[in-house]
Each structure stands twice: as C-alpha cells, then as structure tokens.
Specification:
Low-confidence stretches: none
Radius of gyration: 18 Å
Number of domains: 1
Order of helices and strands: HEEEHEHHEHEEHHH
Number of strands: 7
Largest sheet: 7 strands, mixed
Helix content: 40-55%
CATH class: Alpha Beta
CATH architecture: 3-Layer(aba) Sandwich
CATH topology: L-fuculose-1-phosphate Aldolase
Shape: globular
Distance between the termini: 7 Å
Mean pLDDT: 95
Strand content: 5-15%
Length: 257
C-alpha cells in the first residue's frame, strides 16, 4: 500500500464502495490528464454518515490514490480515519461548503486544467458556440475569484452561486462539478472539459464564428435538460461510469486496495 493499510474490513460496505468509486475517479482524472501535481481535489460523501466526506491525502499524486488511502473528515475538518497526511485546507473549504449545504451532493470535483481555467479566465465564460457547450450551459453557474479558498466565509457564497446547477465555473481558477454519484460528477466534468477545449481550439484558429441562432440554442438546451434527466435516455453518468470503470480496470485495478 502507498499511504494506508487495507481498511476494507473496518467499515460499512456503503463507505467502502464510496471509497472505491472515488479512488477510481482520482485515477481517471490522472488518466485523462486533468491533474495539477498535488493541487485540486475530489470528494465523496460517506453514504451512512451525512456529516462526513472523503477527500485525498495532501501529498499523494492522483495516480497513487487508493480506496484505503482516502481521508475521512467531518464538516469541522477533523480527520476521522488513519493517515500520515493532512488534507488541503482550500480543498476542505470548497468541498465542505457543498456537502454541508446540499445533502443530495454525493460527489464534488474540482480541477485546474488549461482548458477549464482558460475559459474560466474569459469575461464571457463558456460560449454557446458548440453542441458540447450547449450540453452543459443549461447547468452552469459562475463564482468570482476571491483568492486561495482558505476563508471559511467563502463557503456561503460558493453555495449561493452554485444554486441547483451541476457545473460551477470558478472564475480565474478552474471548474467544479457536483453530482448525486461519483459517476455523475465525473461525467459532468468530462463534458465541461471537452466544451472548454473545443472553445479554445476554435479561438486559436482565429476564424469567424458560425454562431448558433438563439432559438436553436434554446431548443438544444431544453433537449439536453430532458435527455440528461432521470427520465431521459442519457442520465448523466449512469451508462458512462460502468464503462469508465471497465477502462480503468483494464489498465490498473490497484485503486481498489
């Protein structure tokens, strides 16, 4: 083990499954190239303890994260599981804000990718220029930059700006997604990241935009809301997450340790 003993027999089955899913998300973030050395963080609520969540030990690369190495904390920041590491203070502020305010938020993901931060730095943010952008714009909000997020007072403003959206663009900073499962939060991040990459690719071309008419934008956004809903044909993460786990398992199953 890299950072912790095998804890699989010391907790509920529900918590262990949450650990395995979150560890898988860390490995997939690394696999897709979204990491920032030790920076950024993903969290998952402990299913049978609503005031507790799991987050990465500050000191491990995402490629090293395992189910056992994840750190369990409460909403006051007290570490509740054995670890030789601390947790990122900014990560605690951001993730505790969402988990404290939104009981339905089972997973929160935050990244600093070149594409996500590149769009977050643009005054107009994510532009409705592509089908991929319109897929996520319907669930997107913005939060102004307040410096490194170590001020507990920022939690209220983060949650206020997030509202009932799944994607929060942290201006001048990066992307944050929220989901009712690890798979849902991950796929929101995947879609947001793709939309941002496509926007930057277009802007770098220096060509004139073929803008999408406002009525087509409206119809597309409404169709996405329906398709992405629980009654739609592609509820976010439901089909993608098992496929992503199969992809990860073919490469490396050590995240389950």
């Amino acid at each position: 083990m890299t950072a912790a003993q095998d804890l699989s027999g010391t907790m509920s089955e529900a918590e262990w499954q949450a650990r395995v899913d979150l560890a898988a998300a860390y490995r997939l973030v690394d696999m897709f190239g979204w990491t920032d050395l030790l920076g950024t963080h993903l969290s998952a609520r402990v299913p049978d303890a609503q005031d507790q969540f799991l987050i990465n030990p500050y000191g491990l690369l995402f490629e090293e994260i395992t189910a056992s190495s994840l750190v369990k904390v409460d909403e006051e920041g007290h570490i509740l599981s054995p670890t030789q590491y601390i947790i990122n203070p900014a990560g605690f502020v951001i993730h505790s804000a969402v988990h404290m305010a939104l009981p339905e938020a089972m997973c929160v993901m935050h990244t600093h990718t070149p594409a996500g931060t590149g769009v977050a730095t643009q005054k107009q943010g994510l532009l409705p220029l592509t089908q991929h952008a319109l897929t996520v714009i319907a669930g997107t909000a913005y939060h102004d930059y307040e410096g490194i997020a170590t001020d507990l007072g920022e939690r209220e403003r983060l949650v206020r700006d997030l509202g009932d959206n799944n994607l929060l663009i942290l201006r001048n900073h990066g992307l944050l997604t929220v989901g009712g499962s690890v798979g849902e939060a991950f796929v929101w991040m995947y879609r947001a990241e793709r939309a941002c990459r496509m926007q930057l690719a277009f802007q770098q071309a220096g060509a004139e935009a073929m803008e999408i008419p406002e009525e087509v934008q409206r119809v597309t956004i409404e169709r996405n809301r329906e398709a992405n809903s629980k009654t739609g044909h592609r509820p976010i993460g439901v089909m993608e997450w098992p496929a992503l786990l199969r992809k990860l398992d073919r490469a490396d199953q050590s995240y389950k340790e």
